[in-house]
Design a protein that fits this description.
The chain has helices spanning about 1-15, 20-30, 35-40, 45-55, 60-70, 75-85, 90-130. The chain is an all-alpha fold and about 130 residues long. Helix 1 packs antiparallel against helix 4 and helix 3 packs antiparallel against helix 4 (about 45-55). It is rod-shaped and about 95 Å long.
């Protein structure tokens, strides 16, 4: 999760809401200590607070707690965004599905061609036996 948070940081700073309970939750979960909490709160804009907060996340354990705090403060959309790696996992899944469908279609075509050849062979045998 830490790598996803780092990768998505420039997007996350735009839509995390730190001021309504998130920072308090992170303090209670021991993600932030008192100095870090005060430092983040002193930042002038929401974007700066988010940037400072995300810079303080330095371990997978902190990221797990961060996701938990986001859920507890009604920011599931942010959790989903991180878990889906900014939508990249969904795009990869769609690509894989497309490849699977293409492979399936190719197999169906081969099966139809094989059945057609068998039918032609059987018809020829029937004609010869007459």
């Amino acid at each position: 999760m830490l790598s996803a948070v780092r990768t998505l940081k420039s997007s996350l700073v735009d839509f995390i809401e730190p001021d309504f309970e998130l920072l308090d939750h992170l303090f209670r979960l021991d993600v932030l200590n008192y100095r870090q909490l005060a430092s983040v709160r002193r930042k002038e804009t929401v974007y700066d607070r988010n940037d400072a907060l995300l810079e303080l996340l330095s371990s997978e354990d902190q990221c797990v707690k961060f996701l938990k705090a986001l859920q507890q403060t009604g920011q599931e959309h942010v959790v989903n965004f991180i878990k889906e790696n900014g939508g990249q996992k969904q795009l990869q899944s769609r690509h894989n599905l497309s490849v699977e469908r293409s492979t399936c279609t190719q197999r169906q075509t081969i099966c139809i061609q094989s059945v057609s050849l068998v039918v032609q062979y059987v018809c020829r045998l029937l004609i010869l036996s007459l």
